[in-house]
Amino acid sequence: MEKKPENCRVENALGILVGKWKPIILLYLLQEGTKRFSELKRSMPGITQKMLTKQLRELEEEDIIERVVYPQVPPKVEYSITEYGRSLEPILEAMHEWGTNHALHKVTKEKDQQKSS
Amino acid sequence: MEKKPENCRVENALGILVGKWKPIILLYLLQEGTKRFSELKRSMPGITQKMLTKQLRELEEEDIIERVVYPQVPPKVEYSITEYGRSLEPILEAMHEWGTNHALHKVTKEKDQQKSS
DNA sequence: CGGGATCCCCCGCGATACTG
DNA sequence: CAGTATCGCGGGGGATCCCG
């Protein structure tokens, strides 16, 4: 059976999570619920407005998050995880757990290499 | 609480899966077991030797796959998933399942948009 | 306040050629 | 057979400035 990246279903999920700030945004919204643009930005020091906007747009495009605009001055925009988006939570949690363990794995590996040197 | 990409545990796992051919390589080795370099290359039309080598090296670096060289002419190199690497299987399966469903989700969404137009 | 528009840089990835 | 070495591009991501 021939394999191509475009046909790999895993990529469908991966493509949504990939993006420098996407996992952070998703974990934050999953924990904290609905948040304003400025709250998101404040919680992520280092991110630019352009990047935050872009990542949010891409997640919205995939129906993972919802964007609600309140027509008022000054503007108010709120973001939250959609029902559908919550189906990603088990995957994110699994990756978080695996990632935490993997950090330990690397440290252990380095120590083993020191012993044998 | 301040969030930074470098501190996100999810990234630890994500970084390992990210790479154009990595999910395919992992799924293939998980299904088929041990495979030679040439078998891997043949099963993935479109991949170059350089890329296959690079992706394999990166996975090996993280202890996800094992590389065994047989000192003979012509050369023979076999790759397989490590015990540790198998801990990624649940995540890959979850992403595969989610990704499959997400493809359907997009199709449904497009049809809904056609109706309302 | 919550963006959009521009410019720029880095690096993942591909094509090609060479090697023990 | 299973790799390295070199060259080049396209796109993700950052910095900066402007807008209703």
TrEMBL record, chains A, B:
Cited InterPro entries: ArsR-like_HTH, HTH_HxlR, WH-like_DNA-bd_sf, WH_DNA-bd_sf
Alphabetical keyword list: DNA-binding, Transcription, Transcription regulation
SUPFAM superfamilies linked: Winged helix' DNA-binding domain (SSF46785)
Keyword Magnesium: no
Annotated GO MF terms: DNA binding
PROSITE patterns (UniProt xref): HTH_HXLR
Domain HTH hxlR-type: start-end pairs: 8-107
Protein name: Transcriptional regulator, HxlR family
Lineage: Bacteria, Bacillati, Bacillota, Bacilli, Bacillales
